[in-house]
Structures are given as C-alpha cells and as structure tokens.
Amino acid sequence: MAHINAIRHHEFGKPQDVLRLEQLPLSEPKPGEVRVKLLAATINPSDYGMIGGSYGHLRDLPAVAGREGVGQIDTLGEGVDSVKVGQRVRFPDEGTWQDYACMAAGELMLVPDSVPVDQAAISFINPPTAYCLLKKVIDLPAGSWIVQNAGNSAVGLSVIQMAKAMGLKTISQVRREELVEPLKTMGADHVVLEGSGWAKQITELTGGEPLRLALNSIGGESAIDQIKALGEGGTQVTFGGMVGDLVRFPTRFLIFNDVRLVGFWWDKFCKAQGADVVRDVMDEVYAMMADGRLKLPIEASYQFSQIQDAIAHDKSPRLGKVLLRP
C-alpha cells in the first residue's frame, strides 16, 4: 500500500513537544471527490492555537496540523467533471501539512495560474483578513489614515500594500528599528516604534487629519496607544492578541471621543457570509497578487522532515513567511 508523509499531533501542546512526522495510507478519492497533491503550505499563527488547544475551533485528535496551503488536483473521483487534473486549488484546510488529501469537488477553491505558487500558499487567511479589515468594517474614504500594530506580520504587510493600492494612508507600529525602512519600501507612509510615544505626535504624523481606523492584533499597551490616537468616532478592530496582556477599559476615550471597539475573525466571516462573498474577496486578493500590487516576502522553505527547524525559524525575528514543502 502506498503511503504519504503527514505532520500530526495526538494531543494538544507545544509544537516542539507534540508534532510527529508520520506515514499514513494514500487515500483514493470517493465518487464526487478529488485528490489534491500539496505544492506548498505555510505556518500560520493560528496553527499554534490549534496545535496548542486554544483556538476558536479545534480538530478531533489525532490531527494533521496546518491550515493553509496550495495544491494541484492529482486524481478525479467518479462523476467529477467540473474540474481537471492539474488545476491549482486550496489544499484541504483540515490539515495542510501532508502530501495528499481528498475533498469534495464542489468545495474546491480554485487558484488562478497567474498567482505564483509561493504567494498562493499564503493567500487564504492573512491577505483576505487584511482586505476585509480595510473594506468590510467601516467605509473609508480615499485618503483616510489608518494605524496598525504588528506592521511586519503577514496581515500587516498586506494592509500596507493593499491600502496603498486603495488610496489609503498607513501608520505601522513595529518593535524593531531595522523594520522601518523595509516597510516604507513596501509603501508604508509612516513606521513608528512601539513605546516611543508616537501617539502624542499623531497630529504631526497625519497632518491634522483624523485617524479613522486602528487594526490591533497585539493587545496591551500597543492597543492602548492606538485608542489614544484615534480621532473622533474612530474604530479599533481587534483580530488577534499576541501578547495576551490585559487592556485597560478606555472609559475616557469611549465617552469623550466616541471611539468604537469591535472584533473580526476571518473564519467567522466566511461562515456568516457564505462561499460567494468569500470568493469575491479572494478574487480581489488574487487580482492584486497577479499584477504585483500585493507581494508578500518568503523567509525560508523547509521540508516536512525539518518541521522542528521550521517552527524555530518561524518563532524567531523575521520579515516573511516560512513555507513547508513535501
């Protein structure tokens, strides 16, 4: 019997403790299914939550790890005529860190050939999140100012490039001085250092224009600085909490500045809005990837057998995604 390689965990915990490279039987597609061969997957921050048992929804154990990757249709099951062998698709997201997987043909998300494989591998979570943060939360007139923390994250880099294409202006918070110039090269209008007191200079940074939107994926003092900088009626969207620190309830700013605090979760958006709306968002993402308006840096690539090295690299200071390949 043919076998495939898969990175699995039989319990929840730290990746370095629970992940194992295992061999599983190669599955044949059932009627109405296709088999997909993985081309490239990535390590997403939410993978750590799923492996550790803290994410919003968890898989039954044992589970193949990974949520994001691009593949190529390898075999068609009986009765499938809507797609062809060789087409690129999103790899089944219930475990992308494996060589092959089967899924229903009717659930496939096609990926245009015009999108490079490395970009397609990281296109399914962070870029659409960035697009929705800019387009689906509040109505932002052209020229509006936004601020975001974790400006060097995949969402952050997507926001910088998408905002530039949309005619919006960005302030990106980062923790390392060496990130300032690379982010400006990608199109950031201002890059500020966390803890530098930048919020007190917000008028100078924006030329007196109000800060309409703040994107928070860190929490703690970083989030508080954003709330202080927001203009009258401004909105802060929280979509992550990297540090886990408590955020003081901003009574003064809620009362006197009428700021609004909301949340966003791409997974929930997908379920609530349905496949057609998700497809529209992805079409916008792929159009920008195809013509170069959106290009995310790749830090390194590792084989499945190097998963521990890949995890260690992913957790180190970097500017770009870490990919996994079969």
Structural features, described:
With 326 residues, this protein is α/β, with parallel strands linked by helices. It folds into two domains: 3-122 and 296-325, Medium-chain alcohol dehydrogenases, catalytic domain (Quinone Oxidoreductase, Chain A, domain 1, Alpha-Beta Complex); 127-267, NAD(P)-binding Rossmann-like Domain (Rossmann fold, 3-Layer(aba) Sandwich), CATH 3.40.50.720. It contains twelve helices and 15 strands. Strands 3, 5, 6, 7, 14 and 15 form a six-stranded mixed β-sheet that branches. Strands 10-9-8-11-12-13 form a six-stranded parallel β-sheet, with helices on both faces. The chain has a three-stranded antiparallel β-sheet with strand order 2-1-4. β8 (145-148), α5 and β9 (169-174) form a beta-alpha-beta unit. α4 (126-135) crosses α5.
Question: What's the topology here?
Answer:
Elements: E1 3-9, H1 15-18, E2 19-25, E3 33-42, H2 45-52, E4 63-64, E5 69-76, E6 88-90, E7 100-104, H3 117-121, H4 126-135, E8 145-148, H5 154-166, E9 169-174, H6 180-186, E10 190-193, H7 202-206, E11 211-216, H8 220-229, E12 235-238, H9 251-256, E13 260-263, H10 266-273, H11 275-291, E14 298-303, H12 307-314, E15 321-325
Parallel strand pairs: 8-9, 8-11, 9-10, 11-12, 12-13, 14-15
Antiparallel strand pairs: 1-2, 1-4, 3-5, 3-7, 3-15, 5-6
Helix pairs in contact: 4-5, 4-11, 10-11
Query: Tell me, what's the shape?
Result: globular
Number of continuous helical runs: 12
Strand residues, percent: 15-25%
Radius of gyration from the CA trace?
Answer: 21 Å
Mean pLDDT level: 93
What is the makeup of the main sheet? Answer: 6 strands, mixed
Uncertain residue segments = none
